[in-house]
Automatic annotation (TrEMBL):
CDD domains given in the database record: GAT1_cyanophycinase (cd03145)
Organism: Streptomyces erythrochromogenes
Keyword Nucleotide-binding: no
Annotated keywords: Hydrolase, Protease, Serine protease, Signal
Keyword Secreted: no
PROSITE patterns the UniProt entry points to: TAT
Family: Belongs to the peptidase S51 family.
Name of this chain's protein: Cyanophycinase
Signal sequence range: 1-30
InterPro entries per the UniProt record, alphabetical: Class_I_gatase-like, Peptidase_S51, TAT_signal
Record Gene3D superfamilies: 3.40.50.880
Domain of life: Bacteria
UniProt xrefs under Pfam families: Peptidase_S51 (PF03575)
Amino acid sequence: MPVPTGARRTALTGSTVLVLALTLAPAAQANGATSTGGRGSLVLIGGGLKADNTQVYGEIIKRAGGSKARIGVLTAASVPASQDPDAGDPESCSNSACNGAYYAGLFKQHGAADAQWIPIDLDHITNADSDDVVRQVNSMTGFFFGGGDQYRYVTTLLHGTAHTDSKVLAAIRAKLAAGAVVSGSSAGAQITAGADMVTGGDSYEGLRDGSSPGYFDDPSRLGYLPEGGFGFLRSGLIDTHTGTNGREGRALRLAADTGHDRVYALEENTALIVDAPNTPRERLRVLGPQGVAILDLRQARTGKHPQAGWTLTGARYNYLSNGDRYDPNRWQIRPAGGKRPLIPLSASPIPANSDVFSSPANPAGVPYSFLNTARALAAGTQRTTKAGTFESGPRFTVTFSKQPGFTAWTSDDATAHTVTGLRIAVAPE
């Protein structure tokens, strides 16, 4: 069957938009998120998890008990079988049950003793409060949330506008606090966020128009859910598919609009591992072939250009790759063993970049455009460079600059595998 990517959400009903457009009361107490911290861990993947990624699947299984691991697979972010025209074809179906079977099979192939679909989706919402399903959850040692649309997890596992836990979510939350691993990819990573969870949007429209509370049929409109997702990780906003979909711009705008000073911008097929989430002992590590960008807005300032629009100065861009560690309570980055400070030697000009956010409107766009410019600057003697958006009216310019506090680390002679403290400014032309 096709790999479910969840990179682009599909529209829900108009009534869903109406419900989510309401700005609801904060949910930190209502959904029990303040009790999440404990001995458990999170493995959060930015989407596009490949079937042969033994690093990430192996890490989840190891944390769930190794050869004794029992993984509960939740795929309620997918469309249910009743909405899948290919539901009867196991080769082309892409609904929650099919995707659940797909991931369960992969976890078994990678060495889990058992993996089972937890039968909750838009066709089976009542199962979220079923005592039988709670017993199934309690027999698991780890959990995996698949991709799709994160708001379907809100619809199926939380109780309406009260945003309180269903019995199944309460059981998963208790298992996490007791030491279980909770993992997820794409929407399955996004739903672990706390307040102001992103619900959709593209970078250019986000920079131009700002963010709005709600869920919108227009996939380019930057929306967010004020009370957030499940609150398993609250030390920063979360975004996914960052480099492939050019989401750095929307992440910066949403964080600035909602008063957050940190974003974990996850890349595809790569995991951010979080130990002891939501506690003073919280520690993070990157695992996989790509990386995780950590956007630091503690010193960021926003403004309004008199004619053209929104501006941002003072943000810091950090990019961590495989093996790098991060202490969110101290804001400290520790590069992986074997990496050393990169000595910038290249005097070649930084390649021009006229599509810094890999616009979906650009048929010739390339992924990781923002990261590629950041790495090129880090590896050369040039101190600053500019890149622009593909769209105009206005066209936004991103300025990258190396100022005190900037460092790059490498494990070869030329590539900036880890970047810390690169200054970022955004302004319209």
